[in-house]
Design goal:
The chain has one domain (about 35-260). It contains ten helices and no strands. The protein is about 85% helix and about 0% strand.
Length: about 260
């Protein structure tokens, strides 16, 4: 067998083994964060401060993006439904698209790009400047003091941001369909209220956003804590956070959708 093929097989095997090893480390780290989260609940001000950092500071991009996504949905939905004489159902199209899919998924992707990368960079820089090691020398657990509050802040913020994204999206669809195009306002709201079910649409959307919040924040804190203590290492960890979070969000969305809307128990 040629040496080049052997080298390629060895490289593939090395990458697979390294990936499995990192997955095991991430799972162990996640359990460790959960076990050491009591400090976050006893000193909840730590979590509140991080909620401002990862949640409040992400509001602008979430609200503006939700508004424009809703406006595009209203415009495209009206153009499509008009061909079938069902333009009054544009409110249903906008609301269901946002509450079920676009709201949780788009807000999670934006959250990963803005807050997830910031969490990774912050923890990575603390490691590079030996702040985490200094905490350990002073008998302060860095996972309980630094990692856990950021994790729970992300888990709490994600569903709220997804809800705000959906609300702004519905408002954007209302602006385009009712204010600009002239769809009947009563038909817009009544069709939406009749079609959107609290249990199967709104609650499932909230559940999705909770799963996305856990996944994105867990990836962000792990990549930051595991980053090599160099500028290049922190940069690579930040990039991995965004890429891995995006793939995790889309994969989880498929799995959760199959359970929620396909009748799988």
């Amino acid at each position: 067998m040629p040496k080049r093929i052997i080298t390629s097989i060895q490289a593939i095997g090395h990458r697979v083994i390294d990936g499995i090893w990192r997955l095991g480390c991430a799972a162990r780290f996640f359990v460790l964060v959960l076990l050491k989260s009591m400090t976050s609940f006893l000193r909840f001000t730590l979590v509140i401060r991080e909620i401002y950092f990862v949640g409040v500071l992400s509001l602008i991009i979430i609200l503006v993006s939700g508004l424009f996504v809703g406006m595009v949905l209203g415009l495209q939905g009206y153009e499509t439904l008009q061909k079938y004489g069902s333009e009054s159902a544009v409110g249903t199209l906008v609301a269901l698209s946002l509450v079920r899919e676009l709201g949780p998924v788009m807000s999670a992707l934006l959250f990963a790009s803005r807050a997830g990368s910031a969490i990774t960079a912050e923890i990575g820089l603390m490691k590079a400047t030996e702040q985490l090691s200094a905490m350990g020398m002073m008998a302060v657990d860095p996972i309980a003091r630094i990692v856990a509050p950021r994790f729970w802040a992300g888990v709490i913020s994600m569903p709220l941001l997804a809800a705000m994204f959906s609300v702004m999206g519905v408002f954007g669809g209302y602006l385009v369909a009712v204010v600009f195009i002239g769809v009947d306002e009563g038909s817009f709201w009544s069709s939406m209220q009749n079609a959107v079910d609290f249990r199967y649409d709104i609650v499932n959307g909230v559940i999705k956003s909770c799963f996305f919040g856990v996944a994105v924040t867990a990836i962000a804190v792990f990549e930051g804590f595991d980053a090599p203590p160099t500028a290049e290492g922190v940069s690579g960890a930040t990039t991995r956070t965004v890429v891995t979070s995006a793939l995790a969000i889309l994969g989880l969305d498929f799995v959760l959708t199959s359970f929620m809307f396909r009748g799988v128990d």
